[in-house]
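Narrative summary of target 7.
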Amino acid sequence: MVTAIHEPETVWAILEQVVDPEIPVLTIGDMGILRDVIVADDGAVRVVVTPTYSGCPAMDLIEDEIVAALAAAGIERVTVEMVFSPPWTTEWMSDQAKEKLQAFGIAPPGPTDGADPVRCPRCASASTRTVSEFGSTACKALMVCEHCGEPFDRFKEI
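Modeled conformation, tokenized:
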């Protein structure tokens, strides 16, 4: 008999609390990298995740955090499967994730067509420029606001 802790919805709720180690204000649920949870009849749990990109250095730590979060909830038999197709896109990020990024001082990704201007997360000015296509992590670009003069990261659209 499967206990309530092993219900897929409960497992999802536990995993939605696992944070991204590179952007600790976001969870793997916010990021959209948590793709599926499968609970077998024998209680074993398989978690399916899609990395933001194939070389993401945070994925090993995220896998460890997934296993640890489930173990803390009494779920010991866990397999984490990484899938690369379809590839992750910033469109999978929740609106809440984008709001959290903005509040944290990182310009959130806009539409993948690049139609929206990048706004400064501090003063909301659209008068910004790219300093470097690579910021503190490969998924971010370094920007500067021409209005307030503050540098900031922008989460790149993918």
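The longest helix spans residues 59-72.
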